[in-house]
Each structure stands twice: as structure tokens, then as C-alpha cells.
Amino acid sequence: MDIVGALGRDPPDRESLPRWLAPLPKALEDVAFRFVWVIVAINLLGTAFGFWYYRFQFRELPVEMWPFVPDSPGATLLIALALAAWALGRSSDTLATLAFFGNVKLGLWTPYVLVVFHPAFLANSGPAMYAFLLVSHLGMVVQAFVLHRITDFPLKAVAVATAWYTVDLLMDYFVPVIGEVTHTSIPYPDAEPWFTTTVLQVAAAGAVALTVIPLFWALATRVAALRLRLGRGEGA
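That's the DUF1405 domain-containing protein sequence above. Prediction below.
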């Protein structure tokens, strides 16, 4: 039986990007693509768990605001779709770029709030769930760094991802169109003082910074890929 044929495909070509843009070893990236359907399945299971985890927030918010609620499961769904599209020979730069933004942003934001607000998270979730949430979200960041193999982050795709995650940021923390803000529940009231500010502002500060970081990484990858092509005498 052809395991690669059943579970994935031969890996796409890898550009010689700087290590800070492509930090994973090539061999690890290759495994991800050869077993891409396993990665897709894991992300779909994570998506299903995430929607279950957000079930109480869904009940509290109007249906119109639901797209802005499940941030992390939305990101894992996007990477599952992006990798599945590649495996089927129908790669989408837009899906891959959205997935990169989401998995970097939410993969880092959740550990950020878990650490900053650890007393209540540990008390409410228990050590096992706390550790699972921390490790699984860091895993989202790791998997985001295989996506440079299937997209070079064209500007149109970056614009779409930037627009979506900016709107999502506004709905989560600043100007919800209907009802309350839609950020992931934190086990403290939004207005509770936290050092020199409030819980909501601490969470929002992390979300703002982590919206900018994947944008910079995507554009830097785009620039590096174009330089390599120009060096080989290829067009942009």
C-alpha cells in the first residue's frame, strides 16, 4: 500500500528562506505533507472540540455575532481547509494566508492569556485542561510554519486576511455591531483592575500585537521569496 498516496502527497518544493521565516526543519515539514490527511483530521477534531468549548458563549450572543466567537477553532478549520485544498491539487493562497494569520495569532494569544491570568484559569479548568490548552495552541503556531510551502503570501491574500482579522479584533474588543464584545471568555470580569489597567485591556493589547505579527511575517516571507526568484532570473 502506498502510505504517502493514502495519507498525503509528496511535499512541494521548499524555498531557501531565512531560518526566522521558515524555522521548522525540512524533514519535519516533509512529514506534515506526506501525512497531510492526518494533520487535517487532527485539526478538524480540534475544531469540533473548540466549538463545543465555546458553547456557552454561543448561547449568550446573537446569531449574527457567532462568526466572531470561535477564534481558535476557526483558525484550525482554516488550516484544515488550506491543507486539504493543497492535497486535492486545488491550493488556495487566500485560505493558506488566512490559516497562517489565525494559527499564529490565536496560537500565541491563548498561551499569553493562560499565563497572564493563570490563577483563575488553573482553578476553573484544572491542570490537565490548562496544559492541554497551552500545548495544543502552541502546536497551532508550529503548524502555521509549513504553509510557506504552499503559498508565497500574495498581497491580495494578505489583504483579505488582514481585513478579516482586523474586523474580528474590533468585534472582539472594541466596537461590536450587536450586543457585547465577542472575545474568548476569560475567568475575570472585563472591567476588573489588572496592574495599571483592566483585564479586557490586557487581553486586547495581546490581540492587537498578535494581529500585527503574522502580517509582518507574511509580508517578510513574500519579500524573501521574490528576492530568491529575482536572483534566479524568474519573474515576480
